[in-house]
Design brief:
Elements: H1 3-9, H2 13-19, H3 21-32, E1 70-77, H4 82-85, H5 90-94, H6 102-105, E2 129-132, E3 137-140, H7 144-148, E4 154-160, H8 166-175, H9 185-193, E5 203-209, E6 236-238, H10 256-277, H11 280-302, H12 310-316, H13 326-338, E7 343-349, H14 357-381, E8 388-393, E9 397-398, E10 416-417, E11 421-426, E12 434-436, E13 438-439, E14 446-448, E15 451-452, H15 453-463, E16 473-475, E17 478-480
Parallel strand pairs: 1-7, 1-8, 4-12, 4-15, 5-6, 5-7
Antiparallel strand pairs: 2-3, 4-11, 8-11, 9-10, 13-14, 16-17
Length: 495
């Protein structure tokens, strides 16, 4: 008996449909749908280059000379209060305790926590502001380290968004849509530009939170997911304790040589299946196994801080050696980009001060101020800042009016506010020592040079050498991009 013929007779139903999906599926669809659906389009659709097979990314990308090679995004989950930290508004003090004018509030959509609140008294900043550097940037006294690098920063005080709740707003920043399911910024950049190292992932994510666990923010996987792109482009999350990556260490009794042999055998099996089915996820599996093997050697060296000068460790603050802390993650971000990682996404939760503004805001600033500024200084000292784009900011701001009772000082807080807020950026082609945009006298709405989320995304891609309208991927019959169908580059903040 011919063993090949015998194998075919015993083929499973799943294997049959898997191997013949294209033929059977196409024939079935031809019967189900009208012939018009298969007609050639009247206009040529935009072309997308095939998936990158090498370290170099898609053919034709970057579209032009990039100003930045890498991105570090320090995302502050929970939304830092712009009117307490950066956007100084003397008018708030004059109106303290008075009802915010109806013409300022307008028809603004609010979260359910204040939409039904009858009184909306103005709340002045709980900090003190000064002007810093030659740029004269206004920064509060809770952020002395950030203030010390004010002339290196570009403050964008005219950010605005459409989402009023955390998860949709964060998802919008990361993916260009409020609903989960689309590729994140790091995935798009990795897809378009490829990798700069073979020993570490191109896109790494690290999370941290406040020690007091005052904020109920959850880190959803789709904040760094690849959406409809092959999963090899998703972010690789480094854990806050133990091995940075699960199962990175070999099991007891298994040598590195034995592991290499096993991986080679698995790769051969996966190659056979890849040739049979053409499923890109099988190709992803092959590359991820290989990456895991390489990371067994690269990650221990990456996380060994013994050779870091004490002066550098001191700059990041006392938490720098506590794995999983924001300070530790900031130092790791520098070490990652030094070793060729293209996109590092730091996410720190704890800024959601609805009822604890007077206590928790200062704690958050103390925990994050020195590490954030140290990362910028460290990159600058090492000559890495010029081609590393660094961004700091949250998903929206906080209301200039009070959430709660004006007489209950311990319970003071601010609600979500998407209509005007502040982020800052530096390095990688960003114009430094400037303030871009302006909000009204109450810090409520943008009145000059507004920048929406898609504008910011388009600008980030531009700095990385990408025309945001050209980086597309066809999915479910249409071409998608990070900026969806909008977004304009902000030339005023580009050096």
């Amino acid at each position: 008996m011919n063993p090949l013929s015998d194998n075919r007779r015993h083929i499973t139903r799943r294997a049959l449909f898997g191997r013949t999906a294209a033929g059977i599926g196409t024939a079935a669809l031809a019967q189900l749908f009208a012939k018009e659906l298969f007609a050639a389009p009247t206009e040529a659709a935009p072309t997308t280059a095939p998936l990158a097979q090498s370290i170099g990314g898609l053919k034709g990308f970057p579209n032009f000379a990039p100003k930045a090679k890498r991105v570090i995004y320090m995302f502050q989950n929970g939304a830092p209060s712009h009117v307490d930290l950066f956007d100084y508004k003397p008018t708030l003090k004059k109106w303290q305790g008075k009802e915010i004018p109806p013409e300022i509030l307008g028809n603004a959509r609010l979260s359910t926590m204040t939409s039904g609140q009858k009184a909306k008294p103005v709340l002045s900043e709980i900090t003190k502001f000064q002007k810093y550097g030659e740029s004269g940037a206004t920064v509060c006294d809770f952020l002395p380290h950030t203030a010390s690098i004010a002339d290196d920063l570009c403050f964008i005080k005219s950010m605005h968004t459409g989402a009023v709740n955390h998860a949709p707003a964060i998802t919008f920043f990361m993916t260009g849509a409020e609903q989960p399911g689309r590729p994140t910024m790091g995935s798009w950049l990795t897809y378009g530009l490829g990798k700069m190292t073979e020993n570490l992932p191109a896109f790494v994510v690290m999370t941290s939170r406040d020690k007091e666990a005052s904020c109920g923010q959850i880190f959803y996987d789709f904040y760094w997911g690849s959406g409809f792109l092959p999963s090899k482009y998703q972010g690789v999350q480094f854990r806050g304790g133990g091995d940075p990556i699960l199962y990175l260490s070999n099991p007891d009794g298994m040598s590195r040589e034995v592991r290499r042999g096993i991986l080679d055998d698995i790769a051969q099996i996966n190659e056979i299946k890849l040739n049979e089915f053409g499923d890109p996820e099988i190709a992803t599996r092959i590359t991820q196994y290989e990456m895991a093997y390489k990371m067994q050697a690269s990650v221990p060296e990456l996380t060994d801080l013994s050779k870091e000068p004490q002066s550098v460790l001191d700059m990041y603050g006392p938490d720098v050696k506590r794995q999983g802390s924001y300070a530790y993650n900031c130092l790791m971000a520098r070490r990652l980009i030094e070793r060729g990682v293209r996109f590092v996404q730091l996410m720190h939760a704890g800024w959601d001060q609805h009822r604890n503004l007077n206590s928790q805001l200062k704690i958050q600033c103390t925990d994050t101020d020195a590490p954030s500024a140290a990362l910028v200084k460290d990159l600058k000292q090492r000559g890495l800042l010029d081609d590393t784009l660094v961004i700091w900011g949250g998903e929206f701001g906080r209301t200039p009016f009070l959430q709660g009772d004006i007489n209950d000082v311990k319970q003071w807080g601010r609600d979500h506010h998407p209509y005007a807020f502040t982020i800052w950026a530096t390095g990688g082609g960003i114009k430094r020592g400037i303030t871009h945009g302006e909000s009204d006298d109450f810090g409520h709405s943008v009145v000059k040079d507004g920048v929406d989320v898609h504008d910011l995304q388009a600008t980030i891609l531009r700095l990385m050498g990408i025309d945001h309208e050209k980086l597309t991927f066809r999915f479910q019959g249409r071409y998608f991009r990070l900026t969806d169908v909008s977004g304009k580059v902000v030339p005023a903040i580009i050096a």
